[in-house]
């Protein structure tokens, strides 16, 4: 599990609140936890958008659920089985 913050978080230590929570929880959960801080810029976002539009980067979708199956989707995520994105279709 990865926790992160960003420049839009509130206050001076706002971006650090999430990662600190993850580090404090780390000894009590079975998942390995890490942190990162992201700095977004136009050049990188444009590059990523170009990769996605060209089909060079595509998300890995593990499972799809209907909105009525939301509890099953959450349970699947909590069990740690997901190896890609879990999609909940809202129709």
Brief account:
With 91 residues, the chain is α/β, with parallel strands linked by helices. It is built from 3 helices and 4 strands.
Describe the protein:
The protein has 91 residues and is of the alpha/beta class. 37% of the residues lie in helices and 21% in strands. It has a two-stranded parallel ribbon. Strands 3-4 form a two-stranded parallel sheet. Helix 3 links the parallel strand 3 (61-66) and strand 4 (85-89). The longest helix is centred in the middle third of the chain and has 13 residues, at 42-54. The two termini are 29 Å apart. Residues 1-5 have low confidence and may be disordered.
Decide which structural class fits the backbone.
Answer: alpha/beta
**N-to-C order of helices and strands:** EHEHEHE
Helix content: 25-40%
Q: Globular, elongated, flat, extended or rod-shaped: what is the shape?
A: flat
Secondary-structure blueprint:
Elements: E1 2-5, H1 14-25, E2 34-37, H2 42-54, E3 61-66, H3 70-78, E4 85-89
Parallel strand pairs: 1-2, 3-4
Provide key terms for this protein.
two-stranded parallel sheet; 37% helix; disordered N terminus; alpha/beta; 91 residues
């Amino acid at each position: 599990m990865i926790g992160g913050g960003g420049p839009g978080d509130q206050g001076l230590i706002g971006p650090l609140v999430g990662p600190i929570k993850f580090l404090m929880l780390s000894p009590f959960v079975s998942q390995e936890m890490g942190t990162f801080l992201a700095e977004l810029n136009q050049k990188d976002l444009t590059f990523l958008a170009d990769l996605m539009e060209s089909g060079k980067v595509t998300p890995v979708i593990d499972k799809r659920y209907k909105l009525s199956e939301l509890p099953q989707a959450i349970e699947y995520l909590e069990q740690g089985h997901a190896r890609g994105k879990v999609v909940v279709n809202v129709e």
